[in-house]
């Protein structure tokens, strides 16, 4: 994969809450079609940075460009061009798969035939088209997460933000989930993912590791392991965040 | 607009797929109206009273007869002195004693005025209020007939409460209060719970990251409940009209307008609660304690505000239902137009502005 086109550019980004600095001089770029892992211990500032990139919160200083728009100045345009999925909430339990898809598609302005084609296509890829009229409440957690990821892609966003997408999911489903991520990235969608699973970190093209609001490392998993002279990502993580 | 449509459609699905919500929205109002109308009727029947008649003339005998014939009272004792009154109250034998002054009939004929003392056992303030009200109605009616015959001015002033509810029906008092209560539950409680649920489940974050603007999310949440509350208003009014023969003497359009305004007050209060509450449980408790109890206790729905201690009377002024109840009683029973309720309308509008402003402030702080 040749990474030439940047879709996220962050430079000298600070976010302060009173005297507490949650994000301390962040600088990085993410390329189109890249799977970008965003790692860090709890409280390291990952969530704050992600909220800024999603247009939910403004930086105290510095700039962040996402999908070509400045998050502080054009958050509405940023929001149109990104997808988001978190472990905390997948889909509305009392609605069917199809209704959930139609809701999110509707919110992003994808309606009518465009919606039906897109939704049928996505469900067919999952071999789940026959289940479209089932309520989310009856599905396993693994399926919920896979469908939530699919729904996050329904408006063909340039970038998808995944906030610990595989929390609580069994290893087999996690593997399938990552295959979906690869497929989406292969089609040109940029994936920005936070995770606590170090085996998942290995699947990323590049990863950053945050600690105390700062970026401690940013490179490919292979380079990181080599530079620290260790065998696993786990050791890299512990070494950098301790 | 299409985005909002998709969102509102989802809200309706949430509402209609939850059995409990449907029950609260559609069955509860009807059940409550029937219960308050038929069972918890505040009408009194056969209340035990005593008569202390110092006059013993035709007028006092006629009034006593009419009171006995009204069905509200059962004349339990004919007393002979004031000293007997207190013991009878203490024993709980009598709820009220009617005292006629000496020469009652004579004074009424000659001076055109006579006085009756109504002594009620106010340990049950509500009953006391009702009994004196009923008696007043009967006495005043009698007095008016006398005056019409002799051409003199009425000698006893009518209490407004009784005058406009000559049949003395309890349900006439309950309907406005009940409407306030139901609109509070449907609008404030259900909205605050439904917004808080999105926060609790984390879907609010997903919505905020979507192109939906915060105001669209709130409007999308509120519109279904506004429509359903309106359906409830129509149900309650139709039922009170056809089942309890409660009149709508004033303009129906004004009545619906004021009810919608009150619904907006409740909805904005619901929005405000959802900005304060961290989960559905908290939202429900705040709604219960901050809304239901004051609505029931302090709005004049069940307990007359005039009978409250001074401090509570002052407190009742900040209860939106109080103003709503005053306004719709004025429209329904007294047939008053906008010129009689502009003050209440203004106060209710003020509440909407206040709650919305507070919510926006809280919301911005949280997003920060």
TrEMBL record, chain A:
Keyword terms of this UniProt record: ATP-binding, Nucleotide-binding
- Stated name of the protein: ABC-2 type transport system ATP-binding protein
- Name the domain of life this protein comes from: Bacteria
| Domain ABC transporter, first and last residues per copy | 8-237
User: Which InterPro entries does the record match to this protein?
Assistant: AAA+_ATPase (IPR003593), ABC_transporter-like_ATP-bd (IPR003439), P-loop_NTPase (IPR027417)
Q: Name one Pfam family in it.
A: ABC_tran
Q: Name one GO molecular function term.
A: ATP binding
SMART domains recorded: AAA
From TrEMBL, chain B:
Q: Which UniProt keywords apply?
A: Cell membrane, Membrane, Transmembrane, Transmembrane helix, Transport
Q: Where is the ABC transmembrane type-2 domain?
A: 132-366
Q: State the family named in the UniProt similarity comment for this chain.
A: Belongs to the ABC-2 integral membrane protein family.
- Report the superkingdom from the record: Bacteria
One matching Pfam family:
ABC2_membrane_3
Q: What is this protein called?
A: Transport permease protein
Molecular functions (GO terms):
ABC-type transporter activity
């Amino acid at each position: 994969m040749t990474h030439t086109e940047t879709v996220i550019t962050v430079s000298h980004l600070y976010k302060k809450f009173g005297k507490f600095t949650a994000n301390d001089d962040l600088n990085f770029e993410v390329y189109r079609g890249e799977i970008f892992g965003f790692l860090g211990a709890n409280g390291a500032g990952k969530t704050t940075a992600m909220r800024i990139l999603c247009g939910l919160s403004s930086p105290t200083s510095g700039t962040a460009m996402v999908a070509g728009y400045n998050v502080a100045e054009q958050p509405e345009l940023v929001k149109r061009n990104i997808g988001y999925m978190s472990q905390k909430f997948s889909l509305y339990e009392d609605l069917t798969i199809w209704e959930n898809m139609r809701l999110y598609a509707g919110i992003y302005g994808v309606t009518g035939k465009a919606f039906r084609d897109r939704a049928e296509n996505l469900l067919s890829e999952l071999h789940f088209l026959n289940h479209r009229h089932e309520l989310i409440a009856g599905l396993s957690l693994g399926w919920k997460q896979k469908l939530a990821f699919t729904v996050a892609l329904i408006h063909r966003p340039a970038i998808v933000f995944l906030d610990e997408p595989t929390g609580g999911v069994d290893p087999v489903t996690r593997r399938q989930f990552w295959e979906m991520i690869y497929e989406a990235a292969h089609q040109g969608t940029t994936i920005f993912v936070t995770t606590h699973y170090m085996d998942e970190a290995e699947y990323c093209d590049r990863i950053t590791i945050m600690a105390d609001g700062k970026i401690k490392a940013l490179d490919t998993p292979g380079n990181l392991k080599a530079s620290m002279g260790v065998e696993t990502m786990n050791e890299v993580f512990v070494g950098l965040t301790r | 607009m299409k985005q909002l449509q998709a969102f509102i459609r989802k809200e309706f699905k949430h509402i209609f797929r939850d059995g409990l919500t449907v029950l609260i929205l559609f069955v509860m109002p009807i059940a409550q109206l029937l219960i308050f109308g038929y069972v918890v009727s505040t009408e009194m029947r056969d209340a035990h009273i005593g008569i202390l008649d110092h006059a013993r003339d035709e007028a006092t005998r006629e009034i006593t007869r009419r009171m006995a014939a009204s069905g509200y009272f059962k004349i339990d004792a004919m007393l002979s002195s004031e000293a007997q009154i207190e013991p009878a109250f203490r024993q709980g034998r009598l709820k009220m004693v009617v005292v006629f002054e000496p020469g009652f009939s004579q004074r009424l004929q000659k001076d055109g005025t006579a006085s009756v003392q109504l002594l009620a056992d106010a340990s049950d303030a509500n009953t006391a209020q009702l009994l004196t009200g009923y008696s007043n109605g009967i006495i005043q009616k009698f007095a008016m007939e006398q005056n019409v015959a002799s051409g003199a001015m009425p000698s006893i002033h009518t209490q407004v409460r009784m005058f406009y509810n000559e049949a003395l029906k309890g349900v006439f008092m309950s309907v406005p209060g009940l409407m306030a209560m139901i609109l509070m539950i449907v609008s404030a409680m259900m909205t605050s719970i439904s917004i808080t649920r999105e926060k609790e489940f984390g879907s609010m974050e997903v919505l905020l990251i979507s192109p939906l603007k915060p105001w669209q999310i709130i409007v999308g949440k509120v519109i279904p409940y506004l429509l359903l509350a309106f359906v409830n208003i129509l149900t309650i009014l139709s039922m009170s009209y056809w089942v309890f023969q409660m009149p709508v003497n004033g303009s129906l359009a004004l009545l619906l307008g004021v009810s919608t305004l009150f619904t907006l007050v409740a909805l904005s209060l619901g929005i405000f609660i959802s900005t304060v509450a961290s989960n559905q449980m908290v939202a429900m408790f705040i709604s219960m304690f901050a809304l239901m109890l004051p609505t029931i206790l302090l709005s004049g729905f069940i307990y007359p505000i005039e009978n409250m201690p001074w401090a509570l009377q002052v407190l009742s002024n900040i209860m939106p239902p109080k103003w709503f109840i005053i306004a719709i009683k004025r429209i329904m029973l007294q047939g008053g137009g906008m010129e009689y309720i502009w003050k209440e309308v203004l106060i209710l509008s003020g509440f909407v502005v206040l709650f919305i402003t507070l919510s926006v402030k809280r919301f911005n702080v949280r997003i920060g």
